[in-house]
Structures are given as C-alpha cells and as structure tokens.
Amino acid sequence: MQEQVPAAPVASETTLVREVFGPLGGLVECGAALESVSVGAFVARHRGELDRVLDVVRRSGAFHDASMEIMDGLGYLREHDVPPAALLMWSGGIEEYTPDLGAPETVRRMARTGADLQLAHLLQALVGVAALRGGGDVESRAREIAEAIGTVCAWGGAGGGRSLREVFLMWRVAFLPGLLMPSAGSAEHFKRRLREYAHALEGIVARGE
C-alpha cells in the first residue's frame, strides 16, 4: 500500500493575509531604494497603484476588513528608514554582511534582487490565497492578479522594472514544483486549483494582456 502524505493544516485568514502583505511590504521598501526616495514619498507617488493592488488582495482571498487593516499595523506604508540589513533580508542574502553593505552599488543590487524575489513571492501569495479561499471564475481572478503584478513590476524605477512574463516564469519554476509534486503533501483540490491558475496566467502572458 502506498504511504499517504498527511495534508498540511489549513492556515488562518490572518496568516494568509500576512503572507501577501510581507512581499508587498518588501516591494515598497525595495522600490523606495531603487527610486532613491523615502518610503513616505514612494507610497505617496504610488498611492493609487497600491490601493488597486490592495483591492485585488482583498478579493483574491475574500479577506475581511479586519484582516486588511493588518497592513497598517505592519507599518510598511508609513514613513520609516530602510536600513541595508532590511534589503539584505528581502534579497535573500545576495550580499555578504559587511561594513560596506551601505555602498550605493551594493544597495542597488540588494534592492533589485529583493524586488525580483518579492515579486515572485507576491504572485505565489496571491495565487495561493485565491486557490484556497477565492471564489468566482479562475480566468477573471487570474486576470486581476496579473494586473496587480503588472502594476508593481514597474516599481524598479528608470526602466528597471520586470515584465509580467518574467515574474510568471520565476514563479512557475521556483514555487509550483514544490507544491504540485506528489511528495509535496498539498491537498488534491488545492493542486487542481493551482494548475488552473497556472494555465490561466500562462494564457494571459502569451496573449500579452
């Protein structure tokens, strides 16, 4: 008899919404560094875009108002300093921790790598909550998610932003195998929904929407 892998416990709404807000906050901090502005100035500059992305977050996960308010409590959208160590964290340790971590070239490399990494994490978080909690038509929801990712892709400043296609490809190879392989332990209905979203997003990317 084939050994069955136990299904992972269902995460709470608070946990799920934090999984979305983490990479979004990382993108705000990396974006501010790439545009050479303060976080407050960056948020003011991109306020309309942020509001549209947050609306997609709400609908993707069918999140309640109290859950959406967690973003304010995390402080990512308020004025604050972004030390080089924070960029090192968002970038996954692309640089060695040394006294030279604040050098302009090093800061830009960490911010650029961090933005790449957090874009892929944000796409995974949005697809994940949509697959777990979201209702409605997968094609329509995937199009909303694609529009949200396309919005934040441009936050690299001075032409440094990624394309939706690049983010999709990073996400597909970095996240899906670990969730879809038999050894992953993901519930079958979750795997089925992930594949539906992956196929829908692939079509959107191919059509250049």
Structural overview:
- The protein is mainly alpha-helical and about 210 residues long.
- Helix content is about 65%, strand content about 0%.
- The protein contains 11 helices and no strands.
- It has helices spanning about 15-35, 40-45, 45-60, 65-70, 70-75, 85-90, 105-130, 140-155, 165-175, 175-180, 190-205.
- The protein is globular.
- The N and C termini lie far apart (about 45 Å).
- Residues about 1-10 have low confidence and may be disordered.
Short description:
The chain is an all-alpha fold. It contains eleven helices and no strands.
What is the C-alpha radius of gyration, as a whole number of Å? 17 Å
β-strand percent reads under 5%
**Distance separating the two termini:** 47 Å
Number of helices: 11
Mean pLDDT: 91
Helix proportion range: 55-70%
**Which structural class do the helices and strands define?**
mainly alpha
Instruction: Report the order of strands and helices.
Output: HHHHHHHHHHH
- Strand segment tally: 0
Largest sheet at a glance? Answer: none
Shape descriptor reads globular
Unreliable spans are 1-9
